[in-house]
Amino acid sequence: MISESQADIIAALSNPKNYPYRVKTVEVRQSHIAVLFLAGDKAYKLKRAVLYPETDLSSREKRRLSCVREMKRSAVYAPNLVEKIEPVRRLKNGKIVIGGKEGAEIDTVLVMRRIADKYLLNNLLPSPKFDRFEAMDLAECLSDLHKKAKVFHNKWGVDTVKRLILENESVLSCFCPDVFDKKRVNELTVKNLKLLAEQSRLIKVRQASGFVRKCHGDLLLSNIAYENGEFLFFSPIEYNENLCSIDTLYDLADLLMDLEAKGLRRLANILFNHYMAYMNDLSGFPLLGLYQSLRAGRRAAVCAKKATLMHGWNRRRMVKEARHYFELACHFVSEKKPFLIACGGLSGSGKSRIAREIAGHLDPAPGAVVLRDDIVKKQMTGLMPTETLDKKYDTAAFEEVVYDVLRQQAAGALSVGSCVILDALFYNESERLAAEELAKQMGVPFVGLWMDAPLSVREERVKTRLRNPSDVRDRAELDSQLQLDTGKITWHKIMTDKSRDKTLQEALRILGHILHPNRRLFR
Length: 523
Fold this sequence. Notes:
This protein is an alpha/beta fold. The chain has helices at 7-13, 60-77, 121-124, 132-148, 158-173, 182-209, 241-244, 248-261, 265-279, 288-307, 312-332, 351-359, 373-380, 396-415, 429-442, 455-463, 475-481, 500-515, and strands at 26-30, 34-39, 42-47, 51-52, 55-56, 82-90, 96-98, 104-113, 212-214, 224-227, 230-233, 245-247, 340-344, 369-372, 420-423, 446-452, 492-495. Helix 8 packs antiparallel against helix 9 (265-279) and helix 12 packs across helix 18 (500-515).
């Protein structure tokens, strides 16, 4: 609820004449807890005088402290964005101004550098200027922030997740039947509670293992800017410790969910798999569907709330958006039919590229988990994906362990309904058979794809690789692979010396024909 009226302050800050420098216009944007005034090259953020279950900004002092906390948090997630905190004062003649020393202090604003709308990811995407490498940059930036974040062993937990599930149900039910269907809201709650019961032990393990950290808490595309090759994560949650002291995977889930909502599954999949390569956090994967569902349900409720403040076309648009997020919440916890794909081939054959491009076409969101031998090798030896592996690990025994780990990780992801793509050389016939046997054991369909290309094409590829975890870089290493005994290859062979799109379409055709010949398989 609103604790006090700020109508006169909002009206004054909407007037260009009341700023300490000349501006022509002021654009006003409002949310449930703040009002943003865009004036010239600055942005002024006023905290609303509200009292909600999740936050108390009911007094001027509490709003000032909230501004201080946001400034400190922003220094981590968006350096140099917040410039200062200024008082809002009422002069003796009644005029309301920002800053200065005269007059009574009646409120507080954050003064920030204004970010052009074109740099916000919700406006920028989709764009040819933001593709695979930018998604990888975003994944690395986020994983780095998560690794450095403060750890909590007494926050989050099963009770917290249960409360989020029930809160979503309570709020969504307030908009039934006008926006949502009550029966479906109840069904969603039941599915989420069932998943929580199944994964409660994993939540406790992650809490004890240090995966609950002080995160951003609100990683929607509208809160991320990509400006001059740098990412700014602004508006981190500062008003409630419980909303930002969360599982790092729950933080990631917000971003993945919003990319899915925008129809950007390919970028979401690239970001997810690259994040996992750096964070080495596949053990938490069974929780991702539940976490994405909670994020989407919360977003659906926020949109429904906004719709009540709108009229006409704007209201209809917001109701449509609320329903879209609700459908996503249901999709993330819907029944899944996983399968296992193996992409094999010698270095430079294009297997990793095809694995990456196939993954984003598969359900459920964010697409298939891609498990790559080169990544596993680096994770097992404590290296970053782009660091070079010591030659001492170039042994048959180490290789055998790598494939064992790949199969273990695949089994874990398959068991919770995800499609999995194994991306490895698979030059050994026994390893190919072991992959097929894993699919039989897990009771899922299997497709093996063998990629090949002329030696000249493979040589050019390995020489021009960018940010690739493979250590194969020259012709000599390719020549050494020619001596390998690959045995009889029974997997579907694909020549990759064509364009990426043509090779991808051939792979998708093979998968669709074999796995689900009578229905649409891909998005």
